[in-house]
Amino acid sequence: MNPITLALDYSDIEQARNVLTKTKEHIGMIKIGLELWTNYGPQSLELGKEFDLPIFLDLKLHDIPNTVEKTVEVITKKFSSYNIKYLSVHALGCKAMLTTAVRAARDTGTEIAAVTFLTSLDYEDLRWLGYRDTRINIQTVDLAIRAQKAGVKAFICSAQNCKLMRKHLDDGGARVTLITPGIRLNDIKDDQKRTTGVEEAIKTGSDHLVVGRPITLSDDPESTAKLFADLASRFVR
After folding, report:
1. C-beta of residue 140 within 8 angstroms of C-beta of residue 158
2. 3 state SS of 195
3. Which domains does the chain have, with CATH numbers?
4. Is 193 an annotated catalytic residue?
5. What's the pLDDT score for residue 194?
6. Using an 8 Å Cβ cutoff, are 221 and 18 in contact?
């Protein structure tokens, strides 16, 4: 399995199609986020079919339980012919929202993936939010444990949290899925404050490594995607 997930963070679908044409041989999944979805809606899902790649639909749903439940039902039923492997919601939506989201997605082929704390946040942001304990790794795991009790089996977190997530969430062989944004080849962080290299991410337990701008803004997206894929292949068990 190729763990590299390409984040198509574009507002122009032709830009997304162009980079996929160059990189499709070196990625295992595509992430469609709010930019493409807002501009093109379901049309953006055609990219998965066109390039025969599963989709991580990263909409980060966060609303009252009924609204999220109905939205998940629409996405998983109306677009069931698309290979939407993961659909993201915010773990901070709390128990009722998570429970209804998981229930609505059951037996559809789409798994609910809960966002813990965005990789653009650090301990200073937690302090701003009013957390007394600003150890973001502890808060991430605590939130994930609560979401797991609500039925969630896939989580989106910084790769820096993976080792601790594995320690506390994997139980008796019931291994959770960890999706990690902020994967980099170097120390350039842009607005991602908690970034991680490919080797560390895989060795600490990441299943899907989300890579966006390092590939999409590269002068040579194909070569860069291949570099990420080759690096990953060295460490995937």
Report:
1. yes
2. coil
3. 4-235 (3.20.20.70)
4. no
5. 47
6. no
Rounded Cα distance, 181 and 211, in Å: 7
Instruction: In the chain, count H helices and then E strands.
Output: 11, 10
CA–CA separation, 66 vs 196, rounded Å?
36
Query: Are the C-beta atoms of residues 47 and 20 closer than 8 Å to each other?
Result: yes
Prediction pTM value:
0.91
At residue 2, the pLDDT reads 94
Nearest to 222 by CA among 19, 10, 3: 19
Euclidean distance between CA atoms 195 and 206, whole angstroms: 13
Among residues 60, 95, 153, 163, the one annotated as catalytic is 60
Cα(215)–Cα(63) distance, integer angstroms: 32
User: Taking the mean position of all CA atoms in its chain, how far away is CA 111?
Assistant: 12
- Asked whether residue 186 carries a pLDDT value surpassing 80, the answer given is no
Structure tokens that stand for 31 in this block: 């992430």
